[in-house]
Amino acid sequence: MSKRTGSAAANGAVAKETIEHSPAPYDKQKVLLSSETGHFSLIRAMHLADLITELNGLCGVMSIFSSLRYCLGDPTSLGNIYAALAFLPFGLFFDFFDGKVARWRNKSSLMGQELDSLADLISFGVSPAVVAFAIGFRTPLDHLCLAFFVLCGLTRLARFNVTAADIPKDATGKAAYFEGTPIPTTLGIDALMAYWVSKGWIHEAIPGGLWFADTIFEVHPIVAMFMIHGCLMTSKSLHVPKP
C-alpha cells in the first residue's frame, strides 16, 4: 500500500469515526411525537404546512358528507351535490399551498409527507368515488370499478412515499416529475360530473346508459373512465413534469 493510499484510508477511517460519533441533528418534531409526556404534543409537533394539509383533508371529508346529505334528501335538490363537487378544487388549492409553505419555511418532514398522501387519498380518491355513487353509479359492478380506482390512488400514493427520495429534484427540493398521473388530476372527472349534474344527466340519465340491466352484470359503461384514470396513476413509465 502506498503512502497516498494509506493516508486516504486513514482519513477515511477518521471521517467514518467522526460521522459515527457525531450527534444526530435535532429534530423537534420527532422528539415531540415520540415523547410519552406533555400536553398536546401532537399539535405542537405540527408545522404550518401540516396544518394546511389538514385543510385539504377537511375539504375531502366535507365533500363526502355533502354527497351523503344529497343521497338522504330529494334527488332533484342539487345543492348538496354541487357543494360536494365544489369542495374538491379547494382541496387542490391547499394541496399546492402546503408544498410551497414547506419549501419556503424549509420545514418538510416525514409526517408532512404522510399527511399529504392521506389527505390526497380522501380529497381526490374517496370523495370523487362517493360523488359518483351519489349521482347514480350504484350497481355492484359500478362499486367494484370505483373501488378499483380508489385502490389505485392508494397504491400510487404509497409508491410515491417510498420512491420520493429517488426522484430528481431542483434546487428548492421540488421533484422534477410525477410517476404516473398525480391523483389531483381526478379533478378532470369531477368537472365532468359537475357538467352532467348541470345538464341533468344523472341517475337514469347517466351518459352511456345502463348495460345488462336487471342482471348481476348491470353496469354503467362510463364508469370505465375511473378505471382508466386509476391505471394511469399507477403507471411507472409515464412521467408527468411538475408545474
From TrEMBL:
Task: Provide the GO biological process annotations.
Answer: phosphatidylethanolamine biosynthetic process; phosphatidylserine biosynthetic process
Instruction: Give any GO molecular function from the UniProt entry.
Output: CDP-diacylglycerol-serine O-phosphatidyltransferase activity
Enzyme class, UniProt record, top EC level: transferase
**PANTHER family in alphabetical order:** CDP-DIACYLGLYCEROL--GLYCEROL-3-PHOSPHATE 3-PHOSPHATIDYLTRANSFERASE-RELATED (PTHR14269), CDP-DIACYLGLYCEROL--SERINE O-PHOSPHATIDYLTRANSFERASE (PTHR14269:SF61)
Give the stretches traversing the membrane. Answer: 80-97
Q: Which residues form a coiled coil?
A: none
Q: How does it sit in the membrane?
A: Multi-pass membrane protein
UniProt subcellular location: Endoplasmic reticulum membrane
This protein's species is Lasiosphaeria hispida
> Pathway, per UniProt?
Lipid metabolism; Phospholipid metabolism; phosphatidylethanolamine biosynthesis; phosphatidylethanolamine from CDP-diacylglycerol: step 1/2
Stored Pfam families? CDP-OH_P_transf
Output the superkingdom of the source species: Eukaryota
Q: What is its EC number?
A: 2.7.8.8
**What family does this chain come from, according to its entry?**
Belongs to the CDP-alcohol phosphatidyltransferase class-I family.
Q: What is this protein identified as? A: CDP-diacylglycerol--serine O-phosphatidyltransferase
One GO cellular component term noted in the UniProt record for this chain: endoplasmic reticulum membrane
Alphabetized, the UniProt keywords read: Endoplasmic reticulum, Lipid biosynthesis, Lipid metabolism, Membrane, Phospholipid biosynthesis, Phospholipid metabolism, Transferase, Transmembrane, Transmembrane helix
**InterPro entries from the xrefs?**
CDP-alcohol_PTase-I, CDP-diaglyc--ser_O-PTrfase, CDP-diaglyc--ser_O-PTrfase_fun, CDP-OH_P_trans, CDP-OH_PTrfase_TM_dom, CDP_ALCOHOL_P_TRANSF_CS
Catalytic activity, reaction form: a CDP-1,2-diacyl-sn-glycerol + L-serine = a 1,2-diacyl-sn-glycero-3-phospho-L-serine + CMP + H(+)
